[in-house]
Amino acid sequence: MLIHQLLSPRTIAVVGASPNPSKIGHIIFRHLLKSRARVYPVHPSATRILDQSVWPSIRSLPEPVELAVLATPAATVPELVEECVACGVGVVIPIAGGFGETGPEGRKLEARMKAAIRGSSTRLLGPNTLGVINPAYALDTFFLPDDRLDRPGPGSIALLSQSGAVGVTLVATAAAMGAGISCFVGLGNRLDIGEAELVRELARPGSGTSVIGLYLESFGNGPAFVEACREVAGETPVVLLKAGRTATGARAASLHTGSMAGPDRVVDGVLRQYGVWRVFDDLELVDTCLALSLVRRSPLSSTRVAVLTCAGGQGVMLTDYIESTTRGVGLSMAQLSEGTRLRLKEIIPTFASSANPVDLTGEASPPMYEAALQAVLEDAGVDAVLASVVLQLPHMDDGVLEAIARQAARYGKPVVAALIGPKDTQAPFRALVGMGVPAYPSLWRAVRALAAVLRYPQLAARARRARDLARIGGTR
Amino acid sequence: MSTMARVSPVPQPRLLMAEHEVKAALRRLGVQVPPSVLLAPADPVPSSFPFPFPVVVKVSSRALLHKTEARAVFVGVKDASELQAVASDLRERFAGELLLVEPVERPGVEAIVGFFRDPVFGPCAMVGVGGVYAELYQDVAFRRLPVDEAEVGAMLDELRARALFEGFRGRKVSREALVRLVVAVSRWVEEMGREFGQMDLNPVFVREHDAVVIDAKLMGQDG
């Protein structure tokens, strides 16, 4: 119900819609006109905006709306929320800042809004939020013009962000990589709707979300959030970027335990315990979500990686990243069988290396790459492949992208691609991602994403186990 | 006149139990602690115990948070006459307090086991490398309560020095005994409810067949 009204409402009111194209109320209304909802602009005096009839108030609308976006200043918001509650609006999204984040005056406004929704059926997202994006429904409440910020296409990644600016980064990164999203939700000040409830709602079967990525600076309700994650993480991975790691909490440090229990170390342990995959920067958040949304995750106990490259240097670096436990992910390099190596010798130039990392050299071409990829995927000692391509080589072309996707789809073994330095910085990634293979513009990002794919099943199994235990023991 | 009078008192962390009381409670949980004899202020100092010399003598008091710093612990007291001297010194400096006499335990791998109240997640557990260097290495793992044996095992797997608890260089260590100890004490922490503040079991000697709590401190909630 909440998710439906928030992300695919049949009717929307834009309060503060403006005829002035530079006003956020105008931009939001213009974006929302493209959605599949019926959209009503609300403005006290304007008569036509973008050729649409304008309504003077929420009360005057011809039908109760499921979603109301408030594009008006903070001071006007409490009264509008009260009006929304009186009119039975489903979800209200006040976009403005200037609330609890600014001080006591802002907190007073929030208290009034909280009192207004208490006991009603009206829910509130934010305030101080960009709102939501649902590409499949063409729903978009961002006030950043769509010619300035690319939006991601439809997909199965749900992105949630406590911060607006970080949210914009996540959306832009996903769009640039061709990572499709089921939704973006800006949490803002979390007066009502919080991350714990959304995690549970988004993980429901049929919601169209296969992985949930969050940026948080604090937990609205820590226990409720981690318990929600434990509930869903067995089936729907939860990836978290938790910032504010060095904030020192006021904590009694009189015993050893108290002095060692730094807030972030506790967070780290608890996230592991509840099946949450923790990441440490915004790129890693999107990269990990992309990989987990695309690649079939099989519960492998061994994680032997074969590396395919067109350059010796890349093979050396990839091996470091894969094997090192201090500056890498600590996976192991596969030992290719004698049979595979003989097969590879038939495929690759005589001076190339048939041992892992397999180096196709600058002679590499799409057919050579495809045959070599097939050979390593068929090796029983290989659990996953890191496929690195130099698209600039003379015999190379975009056909290699289809070749990688074709072979990746055949064997059910995870394949993650690194495309290093192509002239077109978006098209090849979007193409390969569109064919179901996560692709990254950096060796390290590709290795990190592959590690998440290979390690996540263990975390999921622990989350399932913990969930079953909690169910047997009753809710705590 | 006195400037002292105007200074508001800093809330002192408060021990919920003296060491011998914590250890008695641990013993009731099935957690291993050293055998001991408790001497009241007026009790004569015995010349022998149900365990052999050398012994450890310490002041066991709710008023004493940092025993070592206060020179309220003597380790390796080798015979009855040395014990007499140590006891009269302690009784002079800590009048009216109880003395706890224990044998010097066979050493093991030193672990620290702790519990505390996290402001976000509530009661949590900590386990890791213990002893006097615990705070130097900070090699510990954290979880929210409740924890079971598998979860405590996962905590030990996270330690940089996890090999220590798997029998590093042929040293025999009962990882299972440590795991059982953490789970048992965690249940007690949960039962204590709001009274509980923080607990240190440090060191815990993890040996071939058992894990024994050498020192234990239990604090109530601050404020």
List the helices and strands and how they pair.
The complex is a heterodimer of chains A (476) and B (223).
Chain A: H1 2-7, E1 11-15, H2 24-33, E2 38-42, E3 48-49, E4 52-53, E5 67-70, H3 77-86, E6 91-94, H4 104-117, E7 123-124, E8 132-134, E9 139-140, E10 154-161, H5 164-177, E11 181-186, H6 195-202, E12 211-216, H7 222-232, E13 238-242, H8 256-260, H9 263-273, E14 276-279, H10 282-294, E15 304-309, H11 312-323, E16 332-333, H12 338-347, E17 358-359, H13 366-377, E18 384-389, H14 399-411, E19 415-419, H15 427-434, E20 439-440, H16 443-472
Parallel strand pairs in A: 1-2, 1-5, 5-6, 6-7, 10-11, 10-12, 12-13, 13-14, 15-16, 15-17, 15-18, 18-19, 19-20
Antiparallel strand pairs in A: 3-4, 8-9, 8-11
Helix pairs in contact in A: 3-4, 5-10, 6-7, 7-16, 10-16, 11-16, 12-13, 13-14
Chain B: H1 19-28, E1 37-39, E2 55-60, E3 73-77, H2 80-93, E4 98-103, E5 109-118, E6 122-129, H3 134-137, E7 140-144, H4 149-158, H5 175-192, E8 196-206, E9 211-213, E10 216-220
Antiparallel strand pairs in B: 1-4, 2-3, 2-4, 5-6, 5-8, 6-7, 8-9, 8-10
Features:
heterodimer, A: 476 residues, alpha/beta, seven-stranded mixed sheet, six-stranded parallel sheet, 16 helices, 20 strands, 39% helix, B: 223 residues, alpha+beta, six-stranded antiparallel sheet, four-stranded antiparallel sheet, 10 strands, 28% strand, globular, disordered N terminus, ligase (chain B), ligase activity (chain B), ATP_grasp_subdomain_1 (chain B)
Q: Biggest β-sheet of chain B: count, sense, barrel? A: 6 strands, antiparallel
Structural class, judged by helices and strands of chain A?
alpha/beta
The most extensive interface, with participating residues per chain, is: A-B, 32 and 37 residues
Distance between the termini of chain A: 26 Å
What is the tally of helical segments of chain B?
5
Report how far apart the termini of chain B are: 28 Å
The assembly state of the depicted protein chains is heterodimer
What Rg of chain B do the Cα atoms give? 19 Å
Query: Percent helix among the residues of chain A?
Result: 25-40%
Q: Compute the gyration radius of chain A: what is it?
A: 25 Å
- Based on Cα principal axes, name the global outline of chain B: globular
Flag low-confidence runs of chain A.
Answer: none
- Which band does the percent of strand residues of chain A land in? 15-25%
Report the count of strand segments of chain A: 20
